[in-house]
UniProtKB/TrEMBL annotation:
Pfam families: EMC6 (PF07019). Keywords: Endoplasmic reticulum, Membrane, Transmembrane, Transmembrane helix. The lineage of its organism: Eukaryota, Fungi, Dikarya, Basidiomycota, Agaricomycotina. It comes from the Eukaryota. This is ER membrane protein complex subunit 6. Coiled coil: none annotated. One of its GO terms (biological process) is autophagosome assembly.
Length: 149
């Protein structure tokens, strides 16, 4: 069939809220310098490493028979030391380049120092899933070794 015989071409209506074709002024200030697939990969890797280090430290706390504050101190010490290792070796100390949480400014605070601390705290992985893994392995390790003595 001849394309000239198909009839007149109807222009599609613009999508509401979408910028006009060729208009880059509206998206230039909102574009993120982080590449989303790379950020997703980094988050997955850091989450896996944080979970593994929390579970391993829970197992160590249980096997050593640590109780009360000493077990939680081991958890915090492990989280801080693993964040230092990840931050220095993998991120080369540049949190804004590799950790997504350090790139978003706090409300009312756009200071660079605050962003760097948020990156280090993000690397520590002190979230609920890591803490529950730590508790699970701490209780399990303690029960297997010390409860039935």
């Amino acid at each position: 069939m001849d394309p000239s015989m198909a009839g007149p071409q109807v222009a599609q209506p613009p999508v509401p809220g979408a910028p006009a074709p060729g208009d880059t002024s509206s998206t230039a200030g909102k574009a993120s310098p982080l590449f989303p697939p790379a950020v997703q990969h980094n988050v997955r890797v850091l989450s896996s490493l944080s979970t593994l280090s929390a579970c391993f430290s829970g197992l160590v706390a249980g096997v050593l028979g640590l109780q009360n504050y000493t077990g939680f101190l081991l958890y915090l010490l492990t989280a801080v030391s693993s964040a230092l290792v990840f931050g220095i070796i993998n991120c080369h100390g540049n949190m804004g380049k590799y950790v997504a949480g350090s790139h978003v400014p706090l409300v009312g605070s756009d200071r660079i120092g605050v962003r760097k601390w948020r990156g280090w705290v993000g690397l520590m992985g002190l979230g609920q899933e890591n803490f529950l893994g730590f508790l699970l392995f701490w209780i399990g390790g303690y029960a297997l070794i010390h409860v039935y003595d």
